[in-house]
Amino acid sequence: MRKVILILTMLLMAAVPSFADNKQKKLNQDTERFRYDIEYCQNTDGFVLVKVWSYSKKADLAVAQARKNAVHGVLFRGYTATDNNYSSMGPIVKDPSIESTKADFFEAFFDDETGEYARYAPSVLESSKKIIKVGKEYKAGVVVKVNVKLLRQHLEQANIIKPLGGGLF
């Protein structure tokens, strides 16, 4: 009887990490397509506050991906103000084909465990969180602080984009 209990316990312990892996896989599937909307909130000393609306079948997954979506949006989509404010910014990466031609770089950059994207979106304003049920999925809005200045410098050093003003002199 002890052997049976021991074997069942070992099997149960082996199965527990796979449940955690399944949640991470669902999180990755929902965000691999980068389904989100981004809008400008405020600029402050090299940082920008953007509101990111992420979509997922689970509200907590949509909120969890807000930082990744904010960095992706600043890189590849840019943003505009939703009110009549004049603030807007085009994407840092001007050539949309770079995302596919430098796919190895961006896969590592946006990796959930080791990705550097999190360095450039250090904080989320929890008080700004808003979750709306839309059909069978959730739309979660969160304000994220993105360090645009350091993000640009990182991409320049990695030869992903050209430096601002590069080649003019």
Strand residue percentage: 25-35%
Low-confidence stretches: none
Please compute the radius of gyration using only Cα atoms.
20 Å
Largest sheet: 4 strands, antiparallel
Helix content: 40-55%
Number of strands: 6
Question: In oligomeric terms, what are we looking at?
Answer: single chain
- For the largest beta sheet, what order do the strands appear in spatially? 1-2-6-5
Mean pLDDT: 83
Secondary-structure-derived class: alpha+beta
The shape is globular
- For the termini, the CA-CA separation is 81 Å
Query: What order do the helices and strands follow?
Result: HEEHHEEHHEEH
Give the number of helices. Answer: 6
The figure for the number of domains is 1
Structural write-up:
The chain is built from six helices and six strands; from the N terminus they run αββααββααββα. It has one domain. The chain is globular. It is an alpha+beta fold. Helices cover 41% and strands 27% of the residues. The chain has a four-stranded antiparallel β-sheet with strand order 1-2-6-5. A two-stranded antiparallel ribbon has the order 3-4.
Quick structural gist:
By secondary structure, this protein is of the alpha+beta class. It contains 6 helices and 6 strands. Helix content is 41%, strand content 27%.
